[in-house]
Amino acid sequence: MNRQNVRSVNYGLVEIIWNVLFLIRTKLLVSSARLIRFPITIRGKKWIDFGKRLTTGRRCRIEVNGIFDEPAIVFGENVNVGDDVRIAAAEKIKIGNNVLIGSKVLVIDNSHGSYNGDAQDSPDTPPNQRPIYTAPIVIEDNVWIGEGAIVQMGVSIGYGSIVGSNAVVTKNVPPKSIVGGVPAMVLKKYNETNCSWEKV
């Protein structure tokens, strides 16, 4: 495996021109953001704290469902979001600093209906008529979420963790761990003593 310390973006002339246009639109839409690539859908903007230096890919959907007294989606500093990402809050989603979110990721803190416990919803009720259930999501600093992953309601992803591509996160992820699979399970943890990722 080769290691490269210098990252090169290799933008072509057309993409450079598009990024300049996106930068102008970004500063008009969300002045604290670094770069928002369009098209993008933003619903409930007044309940979203975009943090500082947010970067998004194209065709993202960031939405708040409901009315709140404070932001329901909170971004930290230097959050980088790939293409086709959907972040949807009906209660609270908090994303920490220096978080990298790959393309086609879904982060959603709500669900139509309940399918566990005592009061479960019936399949005879149309899904869009079932009650909405919510539980907050916390994504701590320095987290990397791989392409196509799903982060479900009520989970916390600990500091410095990695969520593998296409993983479905249904329960809390410990700090400094790598998870993968459906449902996501801990595959490796970072050993502070010898500075390496070790299989669990």
From TrEMBL:
Sequence intervals crossing the membrane: none
InterPro entries: Hexapep, Hexapep_transf_CS, Hexapeptide_acetyltransf, Trimer_LpxA-like_sf
Keywords of this entry: Acyltransferase, Repeat, Transferase
Protein name, as recorded: Acetyltransferase (Isoleucine patch superfamily)
Annotated PANTHER family: LIPOPOLYSACCHARIDE BIOSYNTHESIS O-ACETYL TRANSFERASE WBBJ-RELATED, SIALIC ACID SYNTHASE-RELATED
The organism's taxonomic lineage, starting at the top: Bacteria, Pseudomonadati, Fibrobacterota, Fibrobacteria, Fibrobacterales
Organism: Fibrobacter succinogenes (Bacteroides succinogenes)
GO MF annotation, one: acyltransferase activity
